[in-house]
Specification:
Blueprint (H helix, E strand, L loop, with lengths): L1 H8 E2 L11 E2 L3 H29 L5 H27 L7 H6 L1 E5 L7 H27 L5 H16 L10 H6 L1 E5 L24 H4 L4 H13 L2 H15 L8 H21 L11
Antiparallel strand pairs: 1-2, 3-4
Helix pairs in contact: 2-3, 3-5, 5-6, 9-11, 10-11
Length: about 290
Amino acid sequence: MARRAAFVAARPLITPEGVDLRVRLADAGTRASAFLLDVVIISTAAVVITIVALFGLRGLGEHELQPLFIVWIILIFLLRNAYFIAFEAGRRAATPGKRIVGIRVASRSGAGLSIDQVIARNLMREIEIFLPLSILAGRGGAGVADTLTTIFGLVWALLFALFPLFNRDRLRIGDLLAGTWVVEAPKLALVEDLSLRQDPVANAFHFSPAQLDAYGIAELHKLEEVLRRDDYFALRAVADTIGRKIGAAPQPHDAKPFLTAYYGDLRAHLERKLLLGTRKADKHAR
């Protein structure tokens, strides 16, 4: 049974180079744990901000505080959305809660996660969860909450919260719209710096600036994943693809040394360009 569950959790992730980097989807319990951890972090920050604001505004009367309360609501809205968007748009594609439980966000297309996808999936969370809960909290604070409103708000939030349980990829509505999914990202205690690998065969490969300009940062990260996975057929497929694009012809038995050499040179090339203020995001950038 456990074996079947593990098989169901595995999904193909095809990179733009046509390489299958299989991933394991995060289960609903792990995603819920990550979300609760993030809520605790955001709530703690909100409480600190509120206490500081109250101390600074304690001399104001009730009429002056009312418009400031609206500003506070807007700031909390911006805080929680900036939190999710900023962390998921980063290199690790994971909030602190996700990093603690070992999961991250990935694009279902196999390409790099775009900022548009991150914004779409996180703004949708407002409609899924925070909007109904905010309405309930607002009406409760005003003393006008009724049973029907309470039931409607809770059912709304519950339906969206449980939606991942009713589809095979454990997707939220936000994931469906953004073309993303949440996958396992187990922590590695010590990760080798691939650019420091000493391979005598790899030293035989040399690349011109034009050949290195064929790819960008996104492809560098994908190449690193392929090298760390160390799958013979994946290495051959990627080596053939890169070789055709840059006009090289590595032998099948030289696939790994070729990619190791290209990775080291590409990384150094991109770092030099960054020092000069030039950032090539991916192979499509000019």
